[in-house]
Structure formats: structure tokens, C-alpha cells
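#help-structures
NK: newbie question, is this the right format to request a structure? protein is Elongation factor EFG domain-containing protein
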Amino acid sequence: MVMGTIIAPDDHIGKIMALCLNRRAVQKNMVYIDDHRVMMKYLFPLNEIVVDFYDHLKSLSSGYASFDYEDAGYHPAELVKMDILLNGNPVEELSAIVHKEKAYVMGKALCERLKDSIPRQLFEIAVQAAIGSKVIARETIKAYRKNVLAKCYGGDITRKMKLLKRQAEGKKKMRRIGNVEVPKDTFINVLKHKEK
């Protein structure tokens, strides 16, 4: 945990307090320095401010807020390990330790960003966020589809069914043996925080 000190104009207090509460902060003190400036002290979990808290604070306050923090020791918290699975295979680079209350929201957001970032394959890709063996969020990247019936004109319906069945078997086999390659820039795009 860290003790964060925010000094900001008083007309931005509401937005800054909402940002702090969203980051699991506990308000400890709030003092008016003068007629227009407020000093707020919050107890933050360190992982909530490391990535992009300062950027969001500056954008909310039009650049007028300042932020400083100091170590406040260790405190117990309910944390869980969230794994990201691609077709059932864990991707260790994307595993994260998250707060139990935020696990579903973060898992869902991470799966959605991965769905947008990973290129489509010839087979369907299941993107899942899991805690232990329990899947908490899932997105599906659809496969490219080839029209195997394009060269079949009229004729017997069983011929068309045979072609579609053979295509489905091929896709199932590719999914079973196919490994999903995750591009390097995908990792950077996925790990960026997105404030709603």
C-alpha cells in the first residue's frame, strides 16, 4: 500500500474522488489549502497507481493536479491469479494477480482486447480468462470461412453435405493441433489500462 497525496483545484474534486474510488483507494484526509486548492490523502494499493493513474489524474484535472506517494507498508488483500487461455492453453505472459472483486471486469476487458488484437486464423479461437479451473470470461475469434460449395452446381444434396462435413472435420483437426501465434505488439496493446 502507498499513501498518495493529491493537490488539485477544488472544481475537479468530484472527478478525482471517483477516479480514486475506482482504484480501490481509501480516503484518509481532505484539507483546503486555500480558497481554490484542496489536498487529499488516499491509501492506494500500489498496483492500482503504477501503470496509468497519473495520466488519468492529469487528464481529469486539465493538468492542474499533482500527485506524490510514499510507502505505507503491507496490508492483506483478497488476490487471485487470473490466467488467460487461448484454445485451452495458458498464455503465461498475460497471467495476472488481480483483486477478487475486479477479476470478472478485468478478465472480460482483457478477453475483449485480445479478441480485437489477435489476427483471425483458419480455425476458431476461444479466448478465456480463468481463475483456477473456473472460466470467468470468454470471447471467440471467428475462423476464416471458405465457401466449399462454390464449385457445386445443383445436383444431389448429399454431395454438398459431404463437402461441408469434410470441411468441419478439417477445422476440428486444425483446432486440435494448431497453435495460436500471438504477435508481440498485441501484448503491449492488451496490457494498457482502459478507463470506462
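mod (FA): yep, format's fine, and the C-alpha cells are attached above. The mean pLDDT is 83.
NK: thank you!
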